Amino acid sequence: MSKTNFDRFLEEQLRDPDFAERFKAAGEAWDVALQITRLREEAGVSQKELAERLDTTQQQISRLESPSYEGHSLSMLRRVAAALHARVRVVIEPLPKAEKSAVVREEPASYKSTRRKRS
User: Fold this and answer.
1) The predicted structure's pLDDT at residue 18
2) CA angle at residue 92 from 88 to 96, to 5 degrees?
3) Cα(3)–Cα(116) distance, integer angstroms
4) In this structure, are residues 29 and 64 in contact, taking their beta carbons and an 8 Å threshold?
5) Count: domains in the chain
6) What would the mean pLDDT of 69-94 be, rounded to a whole number?
7) φ, ψ at 9 (rounded to 5°)
8) 19 domain-assigned
9) Whole-model pTM?
10) Structural contact between residues 41 and 88, judged by C-beta atoms closer than 8 angstroms
11) Can you tell me the distance from the alpha carbon of 43 to that of 66, in angstroms, rounded to the nearest whole number?
12) Does a structural domain hold residue 108?
């Protein structure tokens, strides 16, 4: 199978250590979102039903299942897992020597919310 333009572009971008680290972190957030969605669907539970079990909103469940969301708290992940009869495992492991110099510090995402003025 031949490479697409996107494949070639991604290969080029991944040569940049900063981009590669951000790309890897985005993949980790994607994994969490997909795991929550898969567990919920396997349990036959809607987002609204899960929200009711957790005493939160459907919008919060949707946010947790969004691959672009990176604000997962360990306590919320535990609550979701318990409601879906699962468990949370967190693994923190040392980087291989080759990657230690490539550690990237990222500024926290700023989420701005604007309120509409009532007329």
Assistant:
1) 82
2) 145
3) 47
4) no
5) 1
6) 93
7) -60, -45
8) yes
9) 0.61
10) no
11) 19
12) no
CATH for 9: 1.10.260.40
CA distance 92 to 106: 18
* 54 in a structural domain: yes
Decide: helix, strand or coil at residue 88.
coil
Residue 35 CA to residue 90 CA, distance in Å, equals 13
pLDDT tens figures, 84-110: 999 999 888 898 876 665 555 656 655
Name the burial class of residue 66, with classes exposed (0-12), middle (13-18) and buried (19+) by CB atoms within 10 angstroms of its CB.
middle
Beta-carbon contacts of 54 under 8 Å, excluding residues fewer than 6 positions away, are 60, 61, 79, 80, 83
- Residue 16: count of CB within 10 angstroms of its CB: 11
Provide the domain limits for residue 70: 5-90
Closest CA to 36 of 95, 82, 3, 1: 82
